[in-house]
Specification:
2 domains; five-stranded mixed β-sheet; globular; mainly alpha; Alpha-D-Glucose-1,6-Bisphosphate, Chain A, domain 3; 22 helices; 5 strands
């Protein structure tokens, strides 16, 4: 690229970075805070107790998530790479708060993904499509919010896209074998990390297969480098899954993610995924024009890589059917694919318009459609950033301030662990048993957020009041 394009690319990335700082310092109680706070809890315990990557823990010792009592508070889901960086950067660099570092890591990871989106589109479609896809990923509100959440999904998405990017570079013919080896090793590294961060990245092996076939044809079946690549990238994931199988109490129930409510292929499934999520939330209605326009390039060979991304995304949506309907953060991994097709669609519409009207009007129409898309998406996404229960946050922060560090608490909050994780103490997020039975199991304090008069006249008279206000009631149980 020439200097002007480099400046433009960097400028867009910088703008995308600063947009993602919106409500950067807010407490961890925004949309999907239940999953974010569980992730942050693992990082917080790394900060407090050291980096024990083989035994990640959080504050929930109940049987709610796994179906088994979890007295050690094990949290065996993704390998805690994200949590390690979160804790390490917070402890060693400081500058930002704990939650801010959690967000900052994923903001930076999202910019890497944006660069890969741009690079692949530029290489296979053209520069204009690259910039269009880049802008879609940087500026669509759904992408903005889910680029600054405290979840492993953002880093996982960045890692698998880097794996594909470097695999594509590796397959290019180079005179220097060392350069080819470097790209091979980088692809191997990031791909294996993506599988460890979250096995959902496995759905994106289709672009790897396409790229290998495009380079070697059927001869790819006799390329030992490809077999080695598959073995080495999968081995850490297999080892991790084998390790955590020894601790069922720390593994949340996950079978329901596939088709727990039998919604796959039902009309409601397609309505939720295609309309509620992709059309409304992600693309703000108008962006669907770009997505549909991209389909006109499907017969072209240069679109095959993006078809592979599309197939990976569709397969992921269909297999993890209930998970994708239940939680919109499951669509984090498909956002780059959607944005690549949006970039292709914008390029197609622009080329169509300039054949009928001048360049200026074509550009105005594209900007107008994108603006409408942004607006109608933002109308729905803006509340995701809000803290809906500041009383709970104040209660958790007060309990964290005054309770002993080794306190064991009951922190009921409609089954969610957000309150417990805000207190940063081991305990139960629900009344799993009668309170007297929980006391026998080690419960020392009861913390109630937004207490009602009945809480004061009930629990408040049965147990010693440590502190109270309209936002919290903190009781000593023994």
């Amino acid at each position: 690229m020439n200097r002007l394009n480099v400046i433009l690319l960097l400028s867009l990335l910088v703008i995308g970075f600063f947009i993602r700082l919106y409500k950067f310092s807010e407490p961890l109680a925004d949309w999907h805070s239940f999953r974010q706070s569980d992730t942050a809890a693992v990082s917080q315990i790394f900060v407090d107790e050291g980096y024990n990557l083989l035994y990640p823990k959080y504050y929930d010792i109940s049987n709610v998530q796994s179906g088994f009592d979890n007295p050690n508070g094990y949290r065996f889901v993704e390998f805690p790479i994200y949590n390690f960086f979160h804790a390490f950067l917070y402890k060693t660099i400081g500058i930002f708060s704990f939650n801010e570092w959690g967000r900052m890591i994923n903001i930076l990871a999202s910019l890497v993904t944006a660069f890969v989106v741009f690079s692949l589109l530029r290489r296979y479609i053209g520069l204009a499509a690259g910039y269009a896809g880049l802008c879609a990923y940087l500026f669509l509100p759904f992408s903005i919010f889910y680029s600054r959440v405290i979840l492993p999904d953002v880093m996982m998405t960045s890692a698998i896209f880097l794996g594909i990017y470097f695999f594509d570079k590796y397959l290019e013919p180079y005179k220097e074998r060392r350069l080819s080896l470097l790209y091979y090793l980088l692809s191997l590294l990031f791909t294996s990390l993506s599988f460890l961060l979250k096995p959902f990245a496995l759905f994106f092996i289709i672009p790897f297969v396409y790229l290998a076939y495009d380079r070697y044809g059927l001869k790819m079946l006799i390329k030992w480098q490809l077999y080695l690549f598959g073995i080495v990238t999968l081995a850490p994931l297999i080892a991790w899954r084998n390790w955590i199988s020894q601790f069922p109490e720390g593994i949340p129930v996950s079978d329901w993610l596939f088709n727990g409510n039998n919604i796959r292929f039902r009309p409601s499934f397609f309505r939720w995924i295609l309309f509620e999520r992709i059309t409304k939330l992600i693309l703000g209605y108008f962006g669907v024009l770009f997505l549909l326009s991209s389909l006109f390039i499907l017969k072209s060979k240069k679109s095959f890589l993006f078809i592979a991304f599309g197939l990976s995304s569709i397969l992921y949506l269909l297999v993890i059917a209930t998970g994708n309907v239940q939680h919109d953060y499951y669509q984090i991994i498909i956002i780059p694919t959607i944005c690549m097709f949006v970039g292709i669609g914008i390029d197609m519409i622009y080329k169509f318009l300039i054949r009928r009207i001048n360049h200026n009007w074509a550009f105005v129409i594209i900007i107008a459609i994108f603006t409408f898309s942004f607006y109608f998406s933002w109308v729905q996404i803006k509340d995701y950033f809000n803290i809906n229960d500041r009383g709970m946050v104040m209660a958790g922060e007060k309990a964290n301030e005054i309770l002993p560090k080794d306190a064991v608490v009951i922190a009921p909050y409609d089954g969610s662990t957000v309150f417990l994780n805000t207190i940063k103490r081991r305990g139960w997020p629900v009344f799993q048993q009668d309170i007297e039975e929980l006391i026998l199991e080690g419960a020392q304090y009861l913390v109630i957020a937004n207490p009602t008069p009945n809480d004061f006249s009930g629990f408040g008279t049965q147990y010693k009041v440590v502190d109270s206000s309209k936002d919290y009631l903190i009781l000593q149980l023994k």
